[in-house]
C-alpha cells in the first residue's frame, strides 16, 4: 500500500498574539508547526503501513523553512518527503494549491491512498483535500473520524456529518480528509529525526519546473480568489437591563431573543 | 537543490513537545512520592533517546555529547530527576562499556539499554572515602575466571533500580583502581538504605552492598596501568552532562519567573516594571547566557578522544551548578510567598538545584581538579 500524506506548516496558534493597535497577528518569533489535523493523517498512514505494509510519502508546499514539517514527519516514521517550494507557488489559493499538489502526485506516479488533514488551522477552508481528489479524479471521504477497514484495494471509513456519522465504502485509490478524533499522533523518534536532518535524508525538493507547471498556473497568478485583507472582527458588547416582575422580564427576554433571531 | 533542517532546533523542539505533554504533568508526583520515574525511562527508550550515544551496530544512533546536552537541558527544565537518570545512561556507564568493554559484553548490554530493558548505575562514592578514587575500599580479588567483589557504596544514583552497576574498585592482583560491571542478580549483592533526599527525589538513590559477589573477568572495563587517567577523562564528559541539567533547572525557573513577573501586579503595576526587580531578572538572564555558552562550548570540545578537557568541563559544572542555585533562589525571591508554596514549581527547582551541587562530585572537588590542571599548565 503506497500512501501519500499532504501536510502544511502553519503558525503555532497556541502562541499567537494579536497586535492590539493593528488587529493583525504578530507572526514574528512564531514557530511553524505541522498543521495538527495533518499529524492525525500522518499517524493514520503509519498505522495502516504497520498493519499491511507499504510506504508513506509526505508532500508539503511552502517556503523553504517548511522542510522542518517534512523532517518532523520523517521523525515520526514516514519513509520519504517532498517539499514543493518555488517563489511562483506563493500566494496560492486553495485551487492553485490543490493543482500544484496534484501535479506533484502525478509526478510521483502510483499510489493507493492519499490522506489529508480535515483543514489547516490557519486558513480553515477544508477545501484543498476535496479539490485535490477532484483534480485527480478519485473518490473522496471527508471528515473521517475512524478508519474501519483497509485492504489492498478498498477502504471503509466513518465520517462525521452534521447530525451523526456515515459509514462509507470506497475503492482505492481514494483520498481521505481526517479529523482529530481519528487517533493520537505519536511523538517523533530522536534517531529518525536527526537522520532526517542529514544531507542523505530521503527528502526531495521540487520547484515549478520539476513538476512541469508554468508560473501563471500556480501561486497567486494561478488563483481564482485573492485575500484582500486579514483583520480581527471588532465585537462591541451592548448591555441591556430588563426591568419588571420575573414574568415580565422572562417575556421581554424571549421576545428580544426572537426579534434578534437568536432562538 | 539540497537544504535540510537544523538538527539542534528540531531536536530541541521535539523534546519540548515530549516534556510538555508527558513529563511536566507527572513531575510533581515523582517528587512528592519519592518515586523513580520508570515511565519516563520507558518513553526515552521508545523514542530512541536511550540509544542516542550508542554505536549504530548495537541499535543506537551514535550521536555526541552536544545532542545529549540539548536533551538533558530540556528535560531538566521539567524534572531534574528524570534528566539525571537519563544522563547516567547517555554519558556515563555505557560510554565506559563502548570504549573499554569486550565485544561479548557490549553485545549483551548495549542493545538491552537501547530498548530500555536494562538501566545502568555508576557506583563510585563510598561511605568512608567519598569520591576519592585513589582511596577506594571496595575490592576485587581474582579467583579463577572471576573476581570476588566486596565493599559498600553509598549515595548511588539509580542504586535501587539499576540492572547493571558500574562499580569503581581496587583490583587486588595489581593494586590498580578500575571498574567492572556487576549485575543486580549476582549472589551476595544487595541494595541497602534508600535515601530520602530534599530534592532530586526520583533518582532511586541508595546504598549498595557487595558480599563476596562473583563477577566474570569479562565484565572488567578498566584495570591496570593508566586506568585512573582513563576514568578521569570520562568524568570530563559526565560533568558537562550534569551541567546541562543545572542549566535546564535555571532556565525553567527563570522562564516561570519572567512569565510571572509580567502578569503579577503590585498596586496596578506588573513586577517587571519595577526597576529593582528588573535588575534581578537581568542578572538571572546574564548568568544563564554565560552558563549556556560555556556548556555548549565544552560539549563541542572533543580534543581528548571525544571528551572535553578537565578545565572546561569542571568550569561548566561549577558555573552551572552554583548558577542554578543562585537563579532559583532569586526566582523564589521574585515569587515571594508563592514561590515558597508547593503549589508553584519554584521550591522544587530550588531543591533540585541544590542537589545538583553534589551529584557527580561537589564543586569543591571540581575546583581541586581545576587547581591541578592550572598547576600543570604553562603560564
Q: Per DSSP, what share of the residues of chain B sits in E-state strands of 2 or more residues?
A: 15-25%
Rg of chain A (CA only):
22 Å
What is the domain total for the residues of chain A? 1
CATH superfamily of the largest domain in chain B: Butyryl-CoA Dehydrogenase, subunit A, domain 3
Radius of gyration of CA atoms of chain B, rounded to a whole number: 21 Å
What do you see in this structure?
The complex is a heterodimer of chains A (263) and B (379). Chain A is an alpha/beta fold and 263 residues long. Chain A has a single domain, classed as 3-Layer(aba) Sandwich (Rossmann fold), CATH 3.40.50. Helices cover 27% and strands 26% of the residues of chain A. Chain A is built from 6 helices and 13 strands. Chain A has helices spanning 36-52, 67-76, 94-108, 128-136, 190-196, 246-259; strands spanning 2-7, 9-11, 17-18, 25-26, 32-34, 55-61, 80-84, 113-117, 140-150, 154-161, 164-171, 174-178, 203-206. Chain A has a 9-stranded mixed sheet with strand order 11-10-9-12-8-1-6-7-13, with helices on both faces. In chain A, strands 2-5 form a two-stranded antiparallel ribbon. In chain A, strands 3-4 form a two-stranded antiparallel sheet. In chain A, helix 2 (67-76) links the parallel strand 6 and strand 7 (80-84). In chain A, helix 2 (67-76) packs antiparallel against helix 5 and helix 3 crosses helix 4 (128-136). The longest helix of chain A is centred in the N-terminal third of the chain and has 17 residues, at 36-52. The N and C termini of chain A lie far apart (50 Å). Chain B has 379 residues and is an alpha+beta fold. Helices cover 52% and strands 16% of the residues of chain B. The model of chain B has no long low-confidence stretch (mean pLDDT 95). Chain B is globular, with a radius of gyration of 21 Å. In chain B, the strands form 2 sheets. In chain B, strands 1, 2, 3, 4, 5, 6, 7 and 8 form an 8-stranded mixed sheet that branches. In chain B, strands 9-10 form a two-stranded antiparallel sheet. In chain B, helix 3 packs antiparallel against helix 4, helix 7 (227-263) packs antiparallel against helix 8 (275-300) and helix 7 (227-263) runs parallel beside helix 9 (310-335). The termini of chain B are far apart. In chain B, a hairpin with a 2-residue loop joins strand 2 (139-143) and strand 3 (146-156). Chain B has 3 domains: 7-114, Acyl-CoA dehydrogenase/oxidase, N-terminal domain (Butyryl-Coa Dehydrogenase, subunit A, domain 1); 120-222, Butyryl-CoA Dehydrogenase, subunit A, domain 2; 227-376, Butyryl-CoA Dehydrogenase, subunit A, domain 3, CATH 1.20.140.10. Chain B contains 12 helices and 10 strands. The interface between A and B is medium-sized, with 24 and 29 residues.
